[in-house]
Amino acid sequence: MALFKEKKGFFGKLSERIGDAIMGRPEIDEDLMDELEEILITSDIGMDTTMKIMEDLRTYIKDNYITNPANVKEALAKVIAKLMDKGERNQLCQDTPLVILMIGINGGGKTTSIAKIGHKLRQEGKTVLLAAADTFRAAAGEQLEIWGNRIGVNTIKHQEGADPSAVIFDAIQSAKARNMDVLICDTAGRLQTKKNLMNELEKMNKVISREFPEAARETLLVLDATTGKNAVSQAQEFNDVAEITGVVLTKLDGTAKGGIAITIADEFDMPIKYIGVGEKMDDLKEFVPLEFAGGIFE
Ligand code: GDP
């Protein structure tokens, strides 16, 4: 996969550093293990997660009788993939009707991700409706609608400043009347007012439960990978206020900070569902743990 071979971005730096640590070593010894640990810790992978990876790596090496340092990269990728593998939870719920609430701070790539997911679902033959429930940000609704037009789906929107739950209410009526498979709802990303955000989400969730009880649900958190450790603290903050069912990790095309995906998946038990790899509607990939972790030894 071309993306994972790209040395400049994503895991490129990590891959190179691990390669350097292994090169020329005659055997797997404590010195190598210490060096690997150091590399992981300094690659946006948290301390606890690094410790877990190292422990699993030692077990894997022992159980599989690995003695050649050249095979350590692959072992590491397998261990990391397993840590990120949440089974079916790594995929978007396939049941319909489905309501997806998209949350995350402004600028993270929420609008773009909504469009990308909508586009993917359309390609799968599903009918999609968008709800512009970020009524706080000026022009958020217009931006969403522009994307909606691009991917060929309708957008329900109200005036700026309107009650987000009212938008959701209208969108649900419309989705039901038109027999839509998936309703994707944009929300305002105001983390600085945690209590407000919590109340707002609660209200939206109540409206969905009341008006659309038959719908399956997803709450996806959009995180910008380029922000590194900030994305991890956002995961923490949003985890406190919402029942997150999955993560969309954006902007992995332009960063060597892919390591945070491991921390997020491990520390918060959040399944990564999609990764954003560009600004266009096709630049979204379903998350496959082994493929992702495989980037380490490309
Ligand atoms: P929002 O404020 O969270 O809705 O963020 P937007 O969807 O408007 O995106 C903010 C900026 O990030 C825009 O310039 C997008 O084109 C860009 N963007 C979003 N996702 C990606 C991605 O996966 N890769 C890259 N390179 N840029 C992205």
Automatic annotation (TrEMBL):
SUPFAM superfamilies to which the protein is assigned, alphabetical: Domain of the SRP/SRP receptor G-proteins, P-loop containing nucleoside triphosphate hydrolases
Alphabetical list of SMART domains matching this protein: AAA, SRP54, SRP54_N
Major location category of this protein: membrane
Domain of life (superkingdom): Bacteria
Domain SRP54-type proteins GTP-binding: 271-284
Membrane topology reported for the UniProt record: Peripheral membrane protein
Residues the entry annotates as binding GTP: 104-111, 186-190, 250-253
Catalytic activity line of the entry: GTP + H2O = GDP + phosphate + H(+)
One term of GO molecular function: GTPase activity
Enzyme nomenclature, EC number: 3.6.5.4
InterPro entries noted in UniProt: AAA+_ATPase, P-loop_NTPase, Signal_recog_particl_SRP54_hlx, SR_rcpt_FtsY, SRP/SRP_N, SRP54_GTPase_dom, SRP54_N_sf
GO CC terms in record: cytoplasm; plasma membrane
Biological process terms in GO annotation: SRP-dependent cotranslational protein targeting to membrane
Localization: Cell membrane; Cytoplasm
UniProt keyword terms in alphabetical order: Cell membrane, Cytoplasm, GTP-binding, Hydrolase, Membrane, Nucleotide-binding, Receptor
Primary role: Involved in targeting and insertion of nascent membrane proteins into the cytoplasmic membrane. Acts as a receptor for the complex formed by the signal recognition particle (SRP) and the ribosome-nascent chain (RNC).
Recorded family membership: Belongs to the GTP-binding SRP family. FtsY subfamily.
Subunit and interaction comment: Part of the signal recognition particle protein translocation system, which is composed of SRP and FtsY.
Protein name per the record: Signal recognition particle receptor FtsY
Organism annotation: Emergencia timonensis
